[in-house]
Predict the structure.
Amino acid sequence: MLRLRPYKKCDAQYIVSWLKDEVTFRKWCADRYASFSISAEEINKHYEACANLDDFYEMTAFDETGVVGHLIMRFTDPEKKIVRFGFVIVDDQKRGMGYGKEMLTLSIHYAFDILKAEKVTLGVFENNKPAYYCYKSVGFQERSLENPEYYHVLGEDWKCLELELAGQ
């Protein structure tokens, strides 16, 4: 049974181990970190910079085998009605086995039931089809943007798709 808990500094070692190549790394963080590869200390330093914010939540998914996934949630509006998911990742040895869907489902419930959000949003690169379909499977809908966002990654322009899920 998968569960969700607040992130601990020791979780960073797992996240780093799942980022085995630069394409995976960039699909995970876009341009939020300057260079591949990163250390557990760099992840913790990044999160420590957000420690005093009351709108930023780092979460870890785990089961009886240990840590299996991670994501952050943050409010994007002053009224604290819209939560954005980011840095979504699942253990590379467990991808395609339903862990991502289960982690997202738990996180969606947390956002709506605990944080009292009215909407959850996230961005996913168009070239990250497994993640895109995972997000769609838990109810996220693609939002059409007049000016889509592009990131220049590894010599290519990657289109970022905007997805959202409204509360029930």
User: Anything to note?
Assistant: The two ends are 25 Å apart (CA to CA). The longest helix spans residues 99-114.
